[in-house]
Design brief:
The structure is a single chain. The strands form three sheets. Strands 4, 5, 6, 7, 9, 10 and 11 form a seven-stranded mixed β-sheet that branches. The protein has a two-stranded antiparallel ribbon with strand order 1-8. The chain is 32% helix and 10% strand. The chain is built from eleven helices and eleven strands. A hairpin with a 4-residue loop joins β2 and β3. The chain folds into two domains: 184 residues, Lysozyme (Orthogonal Bundle); 136 residues. With 356 residues, the protein is α+β, with helices and mostly antiparallel strands.
C-alpha cells in the first residue's frame, strides 16, 4: 500500500518507502517549473465546483503544469492536490513544514523525501522546495508524465474497475500504489470538469439509483462486505448509490482486503444530529460508516477482530486517516473515543475540510 515512488498514502507501521525511483524525469520542451506562478494556464472546462474549491493561485499552477505532456490534464493534478492536502490547506503535519505522520512525505503534493537514493523529490523536484506549490505541482506533473502519461499505454490496465484510461491508472499507481487512490483522483478530476450531483438527498423514502461507476459496483458486490438493516438504517442501497464520500468508499475497499466486514449504517435512517448534541452527524452528509461485525464476530469489548481494526486505523496515515473513530475500545487519544453508544459497532467518520 506504500508505493516505491509514492508521495502519499502509507501506514505508520509500514517500512519506509522502497528505495527505488521511477526513473529519470522526461525533459519537457516547456518546463512549467520555470513559470514560477507567472502568466497562468488555461482553465477551460472548469466546473463551478472547481472554481469554488480550488484557490486561484493553485488553479493557475495546475493549468500551467498540465502542459508537461499532452495526455496530462490540469484536473488530474488538481485531483491529486485535493486528495493529498486539500490544495495545501490541510493542517496536518508535513504540509507546510516537517514530514507527515509516517515520517516520509511533505508539501502540498506530498512528495516522498525519504525513499531512494535518489528520493522521489530528488528525481522530480529539480532542486526546488517541496513545500512551495510553484515547485511541487510541476514536479508532480513530471512524475505523472514519466510514470505513464508520456509513455506507450501499458499492455494491461492495472485498475480495470476504475473509470479512465490504462495510462492514467498506471501513472496514478506510480504516484500512490493503490486502485482506490486512482478512483479518488479520477472522480475528483471529473468533478472539477463537470458539476457533481449534490451528495445530499436519498432520504425520505426516495429510492437511490445504483451508480454506474464500476468501482462502486464492485464495492457493492464485494463478497467480503455485507450489510444488515436495523434501527432504520439500510446501508446496501447507500453503498451502491455512489454518493458516499470518496474516503469512505476507499476505506471500505481497503478494509475488505483485510477483514470481512458487515455494515450496519451509512446514511439512510441515521439521525441528523450526533446523539445528545446539535452537531450534524457525518452520516447525514455521507461521510461516515458503522461496522457491527468483523471477520464474523459481532463488535464488542471482547472482539479481538474489532480491536485489530481499530488499532489498524490508528496506524493509518495519508488521505484515508479518519477524523473520528468510535468503538468499544479506549485508545486514550483523539480522534478515538468510546461511550455507551459505541459498544457494539465501530463508527468511522471524516471531516468536511479535506475532500468534498
Amino acid at each position: 500500500m506504500a508505493s516505491s515512488a509514492s508521495p502519499g498514502f502509507s501506514l505508520g507501521a509500514a517500512p519506509r518507502a522502497i528505495g527505488r525511483s521511477i526513473g529519470k524525469a522526461i525533459q519537457a520542451a516547456r518546463d512549467p517549473g520555470s513559470a514560477r506562478d507567472s502568466g497562468g494556464g488555461d482553465a477551460r472546462g472548469a466546473s463551478r465546483f472547481a472554481l469554488a474549491d480550488i484557490p486561484a493561485r493553485y488553479l493557475r499552477l495546475y493549468t500551467t503544469a498540465a502542459h508537461t505532456c499532452p495526455r496530462l490534464t490540469w484536473q488530474l493534478l488538481a485531483g491529486i492536490g485535493k486528495a493529498e492536502t486539500d490544495h495545501g490547506r490541510a493542517r496536518a503535519p508535513g504540509v507546510s513544514s516537517g514530514l507527515n505522520h509516517a515520517g516520509c512525505c511533505a508539501g502540498p503534493m506530498q512528495f516522498n523525501l525519504r525513499n531512494g537514493p535518489p528520493t522521489t523529490w530528488a528525481t522530480y523536484g529539480h532542486g526546488g522546495n517541496p513545500y512551495d506549490p510553484r515547485d511541487a505541482i510541476p514536479a508532480a506533473a513530471r512524475l505523472l508524465c514519466a510514470a505513464g502519461l508520456a509513455q506507450p499505454p501499458p499492455p494491461a490496465d492495472p485498475c480495470p474497475q476504475v473509470l479512465g484510461t490504462a495510462a492514467v491508472h498506471a501513472a496514478l499507481k506510480r504516484y500512490n500504489n493503490a486502485c482506490w487512490y486512482a478512483h479518488e483522483v479520477v472522480t475528483l478530476a471529473a468533478r472539477y470538469t463537470t458539476s457533481p450531483a449534490s451528495p445530499a438527498g436519498g432520504a425520505g423514502g426516495v429510492a437511490l439509483p445504483a451508480s454506474r461507476d464500476p468501482f462502486v459496483a464492485a464495492l457493492a458486490h464485494n463478497p467480503r462486505i455485507t450489510t444488515t438493516r436495523g434501527r432504520g438504517c439500510d446501508p446496501a442501497p447507500d453503498l451502491a448509490s455512489g454518493r458516499l464520500d470518496l474516503r469512505v468508499q476507499s476505506l471500505l475497499a481497503v478494509l475488505a482486503e483485510r477483514w470481512p466486514i458487515r455494515l450496519s449504517c451509512l446514511h439512510t435512517g441515521h439521525s441528523r444530529y450526533v446523539k445528545g448534541t446539535r452537531r450534524v452527524s457525518n452520516h447525514t452528509v455521507w461521510r461516515a460508516v458503522d461496522i457491527d461485525q468483523v471477520a464474523g464476530q459481532p463488535v464488542s469489548p471482547r472482539s479481538a477482530a474489532a480491536l485489530a481494526v481499530v488499532r489498524w486505523l490508528d496506524g493509518l496515515q495519508g488521505p484515508l486517516r479518519p477524523g473520528e473513530v468510535g468503538s468499544p475500545f479506549d485508545l486514550g487519544h483523539r480522534p478515538y473515543f468510546t461511550d455507551e453508544g459505541h459498544t457494539q459497532h465501530i463508527h468511522i467518520g471524516y471531516p468536511h475540510d479535506t475532500q468534498q
